Amino acid sequence: MNFEIQKRALSTVIRDDLDALVVLWPTQDAELLASKDPIAALVKSALQHGDFEHKAGSALTLYAQAGVKTRHLVIVSVADGSPSQVRTAVNAAWSVLKSVKVKRMGVHAPFDLTAKTLQVAASTLAQASYSYTTTLSQAKPRSLKWVVFSTPQVLAEQRAAVAHAQALVSGIEVAKEWANRPANHATPAMLADAAKSIAKGASFKCEVLGPKEVSKLGMGAFLAVARGSVEPLRFIVMRYNGASSTQAPVVLVGKGITFDTGGISMKPAPEMDEMKFDMCGAASVLGVFKALGELKPNINVVGLIPATENMPDGSAVKPGDVVTSMSGQTIEILNTDAEGRLVLCDALTYAERFKPRAVIDIATLTGACVIALGGVRSGLFTADNALAEMIHLAGESSGDTCWRMPLDDDYAEGLKSRFADVANVAGRQAGAVTAAKFLQRFASNYPWAHLDIAGTAWRSGAAKGATGRPVSLLLSYLLIQAEQKTLKLAASHRK
Ligand code: BES
Ligand code: MN
Ligand code: ZN
Hints:
binds zinc ion; alpha/beta; Aminopeptidase
């Protein structure tokens, strides 16, 4: 999907040859209604007859209007133009237009659209018009290819917002695509190929390690999870360098369990299909790299993805087995279904070599996090207050929110083992926190944060599917970092 922004008056936009035109109508419309163009007259009459209201989502659907070149015309109220009202309005307009074949669509705001509102409008349209097609034999590809925003004023800020939205939407759609694919269409090797092709398209580096290299590195915890699967594991290393090589990178680590049966500690059958989504952390890292490649911000980012299936088998790891992680710590695997933390802990140790300024892991880690926070906010765990604040802020400003959870040492009591340095599970209580406490043992050499996205990365039931979260949050965080560095650099040049 492509977005564009133009500085235009409504009186000229109505002469454009588009497949559909959506006009966002504000509540403060005295000046607009006073104008002579045909749309003002239409709205005036509809308001008088009570057929149109100043209420977000109220829509006038018109066809082949005199004076308007585009056949499909939708006038939709955005009320006061807040982000959530714009979201409602755009969804309402799309629900009218989705049955029409719209390839090139105009979205006109006859008032000043803020950068934030533009982003919301673009990402809402992308979300509304998305549908998964890869494994459907009769699927129609999405018809909407171009969205031309227009507004009377276009400043650099709005142009940047459209570029950001464009990259964000590509990133989210990469994440959704890989997350939605069934596990037999998204094996560890296929994920690695996806990473390579994203890297190639944007000319950054991508290295893929297989079982041999991973054994050599001593990733005993990651290897233990992969033992039961016939699909060979992959360890994906992506490197985006947008700043000088002396600048410490941010490392993103995505859990890439392409299918989680639970292993020997097997999960019950109902809804087990949803465990194809257990690589949503990995998918979000791929999505962020896709967006970085398009936006090219001034920052260094490393992406690490430990990818494997978690399967039961004659050679699978067994409850009670003790393995040695790359860090040297031994782990008693009491429950083979707590596999995410096992693949992540070795990736966290691997991350040390980049001397990172921060490491963020993203994982569909615990059912307990779904119980704690549901599908609204992701769980955020970090002992670093500054990092917590920045990630929280990135969540608020992107609408892809998270909530900080505790990490008191008392929560680690249950992880004690008589047979190893640490056990991979504690009791039933505070399961999202004890999982984070396990990870924290492997992340002591740099500022670290963990996002548990088990509740937010996909929806169940009739609307089953990946959400693309937390690509927005992560991209916002990285762009804030890049901006801060640019500012600092400018300040040091001035000295
Ligand atoms: N991938 C699951 C977590 C999960 C479960 C996410 C349900 C979304 C919905 C993870 O690997 C897992 O199985 N975790 C266990 C941990 C337990 C054995 C300590 C869980 O949450 O039940
Ligand atoms: Mn599991
Ligand atoms: Zn899992």
